[in-house]
Amino acid sequence: MPLPARILQNAVWDNGFPALYLRAAIRPASALYGRHFALLGNAAEFLDPVFSSGVTTAVHSAKLAAATSSTAIFRARKSIGSANLPTR
To answer: Which residues contact 59 (CB under 8 A, 6 or more apart)?
Structure first.
């Protein structure tokens, strides 16, 4: 038996709120990125409610996505000419 299960085997839920179990409400993504989108963190199906490492993954993947997007925009402006692209 895993350590958390052993520690909590005699635990009683006693805070006035009912305990709820949610069945898999997650649908697998067919792609983590594509034209004009990137799924980050929990949207990319990385869920870790115990240690919240999904937050770390989300922040890191957001940083990578921002750098990639910035590079793509910079290259597009350079090749087309910034006068032909909107600023926002």
So the answer is: 41
